[in-house]
């Protein structure tokens, strides 16, 4: 039986009981009560219970909701919308789309609550669903919801994920009255495309901004690696009196981690505790990363152990954290704890533990982990993992073995990248192995590799080995190609302000004073050395 009218479920007294539902038994008790008391006369009274079961993010609730839905003889648009949302929240996009088609077959017309989760399903499917997304867009237009801000916002996200900001902008410009949701969707879309200029322009044009708007522009700069601007935006947000949400705090912590801004990171942690945000796993993981990159391993471990439900991201952050601070054994211990805890290791996990083995020269352990990746954990090695293993063997002086590994396991130097080449050439320079280094450089030269780092390493290797003719030849190639090595960078935090210095850059307002102070310190050092002699 089909019912197309809209029902106001909020007046149902059972809604308040459903909101307090915590266990499957409680849900089943309310379901039994409905079966006995309400459904005979009002079959649509099941709607609120089904909505809760489908959208609660509780797997047992969702399974029960699916059983209810499959056995319903009376359905309406609210029930279908609830199931579509439920399938999307459960990462079952194909079932969400099939549910929509089933709804159309039953003679229902979609409403403005149908399309946002349906478009989200297309986003989850990725590039393979582009055609389906276009068809959904066509349904939006024919159904008359092409000016609904929430529907258009979902479409903008769809097109931005498919790298089509032109269509997204057309949709945006057609809306006569744009709310903060639409503006934010466009800013976020440009940000995800890496188009910071357009993202910032739209952000500055926004008539009103909320915490999500600020989060979108901060995330854009964070993805672009401009972490200092993230902190500047956060200060502006505070001055505007906007209370930050968890996403904003994650962006700020990421910036603090990359800038080494410990003081600001500590303030964010205190604020998160005050707002009870620190129970958020993503935020807690960002805190672990921040403390680790600032060298505060004990604080990172304390925060990590306080996470009640640790996902792979949290484990990866902690494993990487102790690795970058030189405790390879602790990294391996955490990896074993992760596996014992039942958490599936990811590609990132193996990059972290292999890197730890590399810096500690734990060759045996690293080789064993690499072999177990696919066979034991179902994680196929990627280029980054091969690079880690080459680095592991090269740093341990196993240069011939590393060269052989590249040829036999990777299919030759051409299958590598700058990290692989740099690892092998750098080790050749360290161990003075001109034979392997010369073979590697000649292969790279024949391939026409234009990586500046590889050229510089080869030049230094030849120069230090007394091969002056080859050194001059590499130097000439660097000059002719106009290659420039990326300058070194130092970051310090003084009184809560982050200062960034590049090698050879004198643009800082206090550069003359800094240079005079450095000269003074060098002179003192020279004087002490002279007196000591």
| Strands, total number | 4
Compute the average pLDDT.
Answer: 84
The separation of the N and C termini measures 101 Å
Strand order of the largest sheet: 1-2
Largest sheet: 2 strands, parallel
Count of runs of 4 or more consecutive helical residues: 29
The portion of residues assigned to helices is 55-70%
Q: What is the CA-based Rg, rounded?
A: 29 Å
Name the structural class: mainly alpha
What portion of residues belong to β-strands?
A: under 5%
Account of the protein in words:
The radius of gyration is 29 Å and the shape is globular. The chain is 69% helix and 3% strand. The protein has helices spanning 14-19, 24-37, 47-55, 59-70, 77-89, 93-105, 115-125, 130-143, 149-161, 165-174, 180-193, 196-205, 211-223, 227-239, 246-259, 262-274, 281-293, 297-305, 312-324, 328-340, 347-360, 363-377, 383-395, 399-409, 418-431, 434-447, 452-464, 468-480, 511-532, and strands at residues 2-3, 75-76, 489-494, 497-502. The strands form two sheets. The chain has a two-stranded parallel sheet with strand order 1-2. Strands 3-4 form a two-stranded antiparallel sheet. Strand 3 (489-494) and strand 4 form a beta hairpin. It is built from 29 helices and four strands. With 533 residues, the protein is mainly α. 38% of the residues are buried.
Give descriptors for this structure:
two-stranded antiparallel ribbon; 29 helices; 533 residues; single chain; mainly alpha
Brief summary of the model shown:
The protein is mostly helical. It has helices at about 15-20, 25-35, 45-55, 60-70, 75-90, 95-105, 115-125, 130-145, 150-160, 165-175, 180-195, 195-205, 210-225, 225-240, 245-260, 260-275, 280-295, 295-305, 310-325, 330-340, 345-360, 365-375, 385-395, 400-410, 420-430, 435-445, 450-465, 470-480, 510-530; strands at about 1-5, 75, 490-495, 495-500. Mean pLDDT is about 85; it is low at about 1-10.
């Amino acid at each position: 039986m089909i019912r197309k009218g809209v029902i106001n479920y909020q007046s149902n007294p059972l809604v308040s009981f459903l909101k307090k539902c915590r266990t499957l038994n409680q849900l089943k008790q309310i379901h039994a009560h409905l079966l006995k008391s309400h459904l005979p006369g009002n079959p649509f009274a099941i709607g609120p219970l089904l909505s809760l079961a489908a959208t609660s993010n509780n797997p047992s609730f969702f399974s029960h909701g699916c059983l209810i839905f499959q056995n319903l003889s009376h359905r309406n648009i609210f029930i279908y919308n609830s199931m579509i949302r439920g399938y999307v929240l459960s990462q079952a996009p194909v079932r969400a789309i099939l549910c929509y088609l089933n709804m159309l077959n039953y003679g229902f017309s979609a409403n403005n609550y149908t399309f946002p989760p349906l478009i989200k399903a297309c986003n989850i499917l990725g590039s393979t669903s582009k055609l389906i997304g276009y068809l959904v867009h066509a349904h939006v237009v024919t159904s008359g919801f092409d000016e609904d801000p929430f529907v258009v916002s979902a479409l903008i996200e769809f097109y931005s994920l498919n790298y089509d900001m032109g269509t997204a902008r057309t949709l945006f410009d057609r809306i006569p009255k744009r709310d903060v949701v639409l503006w934010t969707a466009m800013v976020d879309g440009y940000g995800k495309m890496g188009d910071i200029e357009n993202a910032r322009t739209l952000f500055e044009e926004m008539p009103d901004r909320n915490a999500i708007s600020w989060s979108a522009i901060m995330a854009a700069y964070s993805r672009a690696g401009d972490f200092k601007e993230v902190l500047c935006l956060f200060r502006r947000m505070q001055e505007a009196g906007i209370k930050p949400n968890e996403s904003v705090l994650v962006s700020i912590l990421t910036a603090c981690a990359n800038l080494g801004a410990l003081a600001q990171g500590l303030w964010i942690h205190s604020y998160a505790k005050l707002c009870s945000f620190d129970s958020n796993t993503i935020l807690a993981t960002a805190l672990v990363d921040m403390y680790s990159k600032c060298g505060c391993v004990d604080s990172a471990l304390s925060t990590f152990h306080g996470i009640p439900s640790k996902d792979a991201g949290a484990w990866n952050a902690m494993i990487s954290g102790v690795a970058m601070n030189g405790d390879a054994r602790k990294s391996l211990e955490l990896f074993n704890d992760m596996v014992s805890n039942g958490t599936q290791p990811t590609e990132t996990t193996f990059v972290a533990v292999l890197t730890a083995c590399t810096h500690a020269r734990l060759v045996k352990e690293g080789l064993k982990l690499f072999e177990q990746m696919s066979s034991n954990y179902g994680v196929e090695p990627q280029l980054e993992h091969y690079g880690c293993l080459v680095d592991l063997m090269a740093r341990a002086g196993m240069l011939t073995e590393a060269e052989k590994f590249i040829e036999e396991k990777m299919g030759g130097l051409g299958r590598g990248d700058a990290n692989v080449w740099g690892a092998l050439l750098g080790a050749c320079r360290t161990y003075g192995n001109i034979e392997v280094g010369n073979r590697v450089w000649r292969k790279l030269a024949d391939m026409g590799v234009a990586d500046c780092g590889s050229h510089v390493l080869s030049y230094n290797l030849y120069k230090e080995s007394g091969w002056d003719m080859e050194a001059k030849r590499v130097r000439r190639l660097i000059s002719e190609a106009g290659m420039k090595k990326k300058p070194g960078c130092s970051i310090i935090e003084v009184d809560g302000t982050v200062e960034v210095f590049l090698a050879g850059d004198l643009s800082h307002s206090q550069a003359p004073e800094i240079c005079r102070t450095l000269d003074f310190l060098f002179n003192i050092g020279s004087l002490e050395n002279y007196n000591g002699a």
